[in-house]
Amino acid sequence: MKPRFVSLLPVLFIAGALACGAQTVLPLPAPQFPDAMSLAEALHSRRSVREYDATRAVPDQVLSNLLWAACGISSADGKITAPSAMNRQDILVYVCRHDGVWLYQPKDNALRQVSECDVRKSVASRQEFAATAPISLLLASDLTKFPRNAERMGTVDAGYVSQNIYLACTALGLKTVARMTMDEAALREALGLPETTMLLLNHPVGY
């Protein structure tokens, strides 16, 4: 019996790791914008849209383009595409979709899974239309990045990232709307967020 018991240990360990999902990392393709419209066209066409095709997924290439535009690395010295108070780069972008919640990793251009739960209904809260979007981008600020005025600076930084998301969605043929409505308590529990992480905005995104 002893050899059989020992042989099961690696299987049990792997199963536990998969269940928590903490080690799952999904590399994204490099951002590419060969057919994107001009900035002037995006500014002219940008609108808040509240209807999405729930059956049409956002491809990984398009998602990579969108996340890079939101707050991806744009220079060799680590600067990002969005302005950031004191260059603290405090904004965290969580990608919420059917296969769980993924935290965008700008330096690696990758997604790290933080939850296996589909939390899109919690993101939508009482505004049910938002739950039909294939993905929702949840913006939070890591308040520990600032020595003072953390909430004010985090709120301003989230606005910069939100505008980037709006313009990128327009250029990529996607639809979105910025929202503050969400079930914050449910999302905090699902994502295991500390009090020093402030949930600010969310963007349902789809076609």
Describe this structure in words.
This protein is of the alpha+beta class and 207 residues long. It has one domain (24-206): NADH Oxidase (3-Layer(aba) Sandwich), CATH 3.40.109.10. The protein has helices at 2-20, 39-45, 60-71, 120-124, 150-171, 184-191; strands at 25-27, 91-97, 100-105, 110-115, 135-142, 175-176, 197-206. A hairpin with a 4-residue loop joins strand 3 and strand 4. Helix 2 packs across helix 5 (150-171) and helix 3 packs across helix 5. It is globular.
What spatial form do the alpha-carbon principal axes imply? Answer: globular
Structural class: alpha+beta
Radius of gyration: 18 Å
Number of domains: 1
Approximate strand percentage: 15-25%
* CATH homologous superfamily descriptor: NADH Oxidase
Order of helices and strands: HEHHEEEHEHEHE
Low-pLDDT parts are: 1-22
Q: Averaging pLDDT over every residue, what do you get?
A: 91
CATH architecture: 3-Layer(aba) Sandwich
- In total, the number of strands is 7
Terminal CA distance: 56 Å
Q: Helix amount, in percent? A: 25-40%
> What's the CATH class label?
Alpha Beta
With strands numbered from the N-terminus, the spatial order across the biggest sheet is 1-4-3-2-5-7-6
Query: Helical element count?
Result: 6
Q: What summary fits the major beta sheet?
A: 7 strands, antiparallel
